[in-house]
Design goal:
two-stranded antiparallel sheet; 26% helix; alpha+beta; 7 helices
Length: 237
Amino acid sequence: MDPSMLRLQEIAGTNKKSKIALDLNVGASTVTNWAKRGVSKEGALAAAEKYNADANYILSGMSGKPSVSDLRAQIQKMQSTTPPPSIDTPEGTKKVPVDYGMSGQMPVISWVAAGSFADVMPVTIDDAIEWIDRPSNLSPRAFGLIIEGRSMWPEFKPGEIIYVEPNISPLELKDGALVVIHCNDDKQATFKQLIIGDSPEDMYLKPLNPDWPDQKIIPMGECMLVGVVDSKVTRYR
């Protein structure tokens, strides 16, 4: 786990990623990404305000205790600074954002990429398998996944695309919700139905296919929520 995440857990007084995500009003996948790659500057600022802590300590382990406004000014300056041209970039090359021309669309990504999905679009255009129209009710962070296997048969068939909305808290989930989750040390995300009982011990995941061997798969408490499935698109050729 990244050291900055350990420091965030220290000042938050908990190692539960779901609690930190709720406190800071971010997605669970965002906190999971922080644990792997480090807490973002914006995340450190939010934590500093929430927990009355030192954002600089979270990021670097050093306690210079700059003010929140100072850190924001530094971040704004960094974001507005134009990087020097790369010596490997041919003269006259026009640089554009990765989602250039993709307004109103969303990426279809792999299940491996979904397992580490963060609060940003894919880092490179290669992370998107294809681009599809984004329904108006979904956030700009929404993405698509192509159904593989038959665990969710017959409602979801291989080759169909599901629309996933990551802007949701685990506390907003209802019994029977269709969710994309990342469990334990799995290398990719998975798609299952959430069953909520009378206690946390009764909360588990199951496939929709009644003939699937494992009907009660894994407690939801051992998984991180990637997103909730909103709808699907079916193609016939």
